[in-house]
Amino acid sequence: MRKSVLFLAGAAATLCMAGTSFAADTIKVGFVDTYTGPATTFTNDVLDGFKMAAEKINAKGGVLGRKITWVTRDDKFKPDIGLTMAKELILKENVDLLVGTINSATALAVSDLARKEKIPFIVTFSKSDKITGSMGHRYVFGMNENTEMAGRATAKALAKKKFVKYWIAGDDYEYGHAIANGVFDHLKTLNPKVQLLGQSWWKVGETDFTPYITQILAAKPDFVIVATGGGGMVNFQKAAQSTGFNKKVPFYQHTAIELSTLSPQGQNAPEGVYGTANYLFYNPETKENKAFVEEFRKAYDRYPKSGALYGYMTAEFIARSFEKAGKVDREKFIDAMEGMTLDSPVGKMEMRACDHQVTLPMFFGVTTKSPKYDFLIAGDVVSIPGKDYMPTCAEIQKARAK
Amino acid sequence: MRRSAAPLLVLLLLATFLALPQFLPRFHTYVAAIVLLTALLATSLNLAIGYTGLYQFGHAVFYGIGAYGTALTLTRSGMPAPVAFLVGPLAAAALSLAMGLICIRLSKLYFGMLQISLGSLVWAVVYRWYSFTGGDDGIHGIPLPDAIASPKGSYYFTFAVTALCVFAMYRIVRSPFGKVIQGIRDNPVRAAAIGVDVRLHQLASLVIAGFFGGVAGSLFVVVENSVFPDMMFWTFSLEVLIMCLLGGMYTFFGPLVGASVIVLLRVFASVHTQYWGLILGTTLTLVIIFLPDGVLGLFVRRSLPKEDPGA
Amino acid sequence: MDSAANLFSTGTLSQILVGLSRTTILFIVSSGMSLILGVLRIPNVAHGSLYMIGAFAAWSVIQLLGGGLFGFLAAMLVAPMIVAAVGFVLERGFFSYLYEREHLMLLLLTFSFALILGDLVKIVWGPEYRSVTVPAFFQGSAEIFGLPLPWYNLFLLVIGPCIAVFLWLVINRTNLGKIARAAAVDGEMVGAVGINTGWIFAFTFVLGSFLAGLGGALIAPMVNISLGMDHSLIMETFLIVIIGGLGNMWGALLGSLIFGLTQSLGILVWPQFGIAFPYLAVVAVLVVRPRGLLRSTW
Fold first, then answer.
1. Does residue A3 sit at the B interface (CB-CB below 8 Å)?
2. CATH architecture of A21-145+281-360
3. Which of A208, A350, B216, C27 has the most C-beta neighbours closer than 10 Å?
4. Do the domains at A21-145+281-360 and A148-277+361-389 have one common CATH topology?
5. Which residue of B has its CA nearest to A127?
6. Using one digit for the tens of pLDDT, what is the confidence trace for A116-160?
7. Mind telling me how many Å the CA of C52 is from chain B's nearest CA?
């Protein structure tokens, strides 16, 4: 018993190991994100996009004479580890600001922490609309689209089409329901004629969709809104391809046309699938986009995906905001970033002052084979500008007031 | 000689933990708080598994319910904070009783598997009931009374509650009740033969374990101000089980040691490497090969007969 | 409520067939788990990792040999053998020394290996999604009562019983199998008769690993091959083994059938909550027959 007590005392002593580190003359960015498991394919792009921009900025002398440095912490897609890592970055690593994460629960928890610690937190990839919506505040910024935005943009595109009888299916978790409701609720207000025949929900990580597909086909809807999350995208598309579902009933998935979904399937991805995405490396074919793609390919030997755009612009916003602020002060940084508009590979992006959400175009298209690439790409692409589909500042204020 | 030294060492340990926030940076104080509540959780599990011999594979659900009970009371009902800290553990105890009544007819592995299944059902309900529990987003920004909301306040509260509960559990295992449940663990048939109500004692043990697991959960709310459905997922149940086994299942302080090691490893290994699984797995493997009764088992030999796990 | 009427529509036959094809993968993986649990008394938490390695290994083989029918069949054989080799190393290198240890410690050891193997997969194959396409031979689907059933699912439907028969032959007709069954019931006795139980255990673990790898290889063309696959099937596998009866091959089959069919038929009745049905079935079975439906070897 005494030895066990001694051991515990030793454990207490080990807590006193490693002092805190102090930022030298740098701007230290702390990444808390998921670098384990299936989400890594997305988060690596964010980090690489950020690195590309930061290295470029540093080469030109940095920001206010300081270099941008970054540290990463893996939250393993678990919110409690994410919170711990965020605290470690703030309290021990003394980062100037936080960036992350793909997990919505973690993002919300860290956002709350950022508010208490008064440190800016830039969210990349997490799609919960609460982040800059009902639970938004001064210290959190959204660098990507959320379910509300995707829903509205898609509803706009679908409202013009002739489909009436809808079916909703998807991954049975918050993201799935948010996307599905986001699309259908807004669709209903734009086109009151649409009807919901029914819904199917499967567990996150479902691998065999055949029983669900056959059941949906038996119900004979005109169109299906498929609300799958990151991992489920490819699984569902594979099932659609092998059952010929995409040829029988048109369906939509958010990010169906993204590179991350289509490239692993090569030429065997299903055609005719409707989808939305924030970034396509081949569209628009502007000088800025082409330069961005070229640079990314040279540095990382692959095409950039949406995450790369988010990471890249995060670095840009950070640098320009500190420059405008004139000093490395968190409050001045926030004031400077509000309302800032920067050039990006997809055109001008504005960081809205009212809700700290960045405006970006949404691309709506259909999966099509292409002679140029050995994977499918989006065809019939319609680009919907941010101001046409994002919730208005008034709506955000109302949501936050509740 | 040993008996008089031990309380002194315990006092020394308590004093160390008490003084911690004064000389440690904020982050380490926070980690210490996590270590303490996890240690409480592991000790509560050990009540069921080490002392009563029940294969408690789904313990995390009591932790989670304790946390959610406290969180929901603080955020949704108008009731004062002390009520919330009672609601959580009591809900966990109630659930433990309910699940116990269903599972207790089974033995060993079957008991554990059924408990996991039922626990998964509870998890699924919490995960999907977005409007009430926040679904897979969890609940954040939970308001706490000022005294315990600050970093030092939350630490001292956690420390006080943990110390009290661990002390309570220590008294329980040394009491006649504690002797009876250990007797049941070693030989249930014989215990029944001498007139002990085996089922009743096992249920009582489960309820107590569930209650203290729930307390650990409510402490999580104090330290992190958030709750997540992951807290009651079966992989976390296994992790807590690992803490008990690692530290030594047949000693009282074993789970405390195991919890400290796992939490510290998780925090500090994660900081330096993304291959935390490899590190933890290798460490565990080494411990298993060279320390057959867990870390603390090295010091406290168990002299009990091996038993057939399927019986 | 007309959802119940759906049960009697033409979709039902299609759903039953789909449910049966699901059963195949579940059965293959669970039988491996059941074997290991029955003979070695170890709940193999690393079983999911072995399954995942099977899927990644199949991908690698197909990368090497091309995606045609030959490459695919070769992957179905080579990938499980790779996993079996991993299982052999684990058993001979670690488990074999620790059988006399505390039972729960062995559970802990398999958990450690699950952690190690998970990270090893990340190191060897990296974090990106991998994808294997169904060979041209199996692409597309057949029409059953107007509803599509992919040829690949039909293939699984056929392969399942073949594997079941093969396993039955190995366990009941070969000497090795019979000895393994005897060792499951009374290991000491088998040892006393002069048989080297060590090699029996090794054989069992290797066979169990082979089955896990085969499950992973077979499911590879249908899914996103990714890290995290190790967690996807492990809960179902444990539950199937428990409701079927520990160590009982037919039990694993029965459990898999229950799982596969309750889910696919449940979807017809109540698509919104289809996922709940198999778990409700498990709870129902365990409340009525706590030791599992069929006799366990313990």
1. yes
2. 3-Layer(aba) Sandwich (3.40)
3. B216
4. yes
5. B137
6. 999 999 999 999 999 999 999 999 999 999 999 999 999 999 999
7. 16
Cα separation, B122 vs B117, whole angstroms: 9
Given the structure tokens 């579902």, which residue do they identify? A245
Cα–Cα distances in angstroms (integers) from residue A200 to residues A151, A195, A372, C155, in the given order: 18, 15, 37, 26
Residue B90 belongs to some domain of the structure: yes
* B120/C235 touch (CB, cutoff 8 Å), yes or no: yes
Token pair 């001979």 in the structure block, residue: C92
- The helix or strand, by DSSP H or E, that contains position A349, with its residue range, turns out to be strand A347-351
Domain coordinates in residue numbering, chain A: 21-145+281-360, 148-277+361-389
Confidence check on the interface: ipTM exceeds 0.90, yes or no: no
Residue B145 lies in a domain: yes
Domain count of chain B?
A: 1
Q: Is residue B22 part of a domain?
A: no
**Domain A148-277+361-389 carries which CATH code?**
3.40.50.2300
| DSSP assignment letter at B175 | S
Look up residue A90 and give its amino acid: I
DSSP state of A299: H
Query: Whose CA is closest to A223, among A169, A261, A294?
Result: A169
The ranges assigned to domains in chain C are 27-230
Q: How many CB atoms lie within 10 A of CB B101?
A: 12
Backbone φ, ψ for residue C130 (5° rounding)? -115, 155
Report which secondary-structure segment, H or E, holds A377. Answer: strand A377-384
Query: Mean pLDDT, consecutive 10-residue segments, chain B of 311 residues?
Result: 66 85 88 95 94 90 96 90 93 95 80 83 86 89 88 92 95 93 89 88 95 97 94 90 86 91 86 81 85 67 49 42
Retrieve residue C231's tokens.
């967690």
Closest partner residue to B299 among A4, A20, A174, by Cβ? A4
What distance in Å separates the CA atoms of residue A187 and residue A158, rounded to the nearest whole number?
Answer: 7
Q: Where are the alpha helices (DSSP H) in A23-128?
A: 40-59, 79-87, 104-117
Q: CA-to-CA distance for C259 and C262, rounded, in angstroms?
A: 6
Question: How far is Cα of residue A101 from the mean position of the Cα atoms in its chain?
Answer: 8
The domain of B73 spans: 28-232
Residues of C in contact with B311 (CB under 8 A): 298
Hey, are the CB atoms on C15 and A238 less than 8 Å from each other? no
B116 touches chain C (CB under 8 A): yes
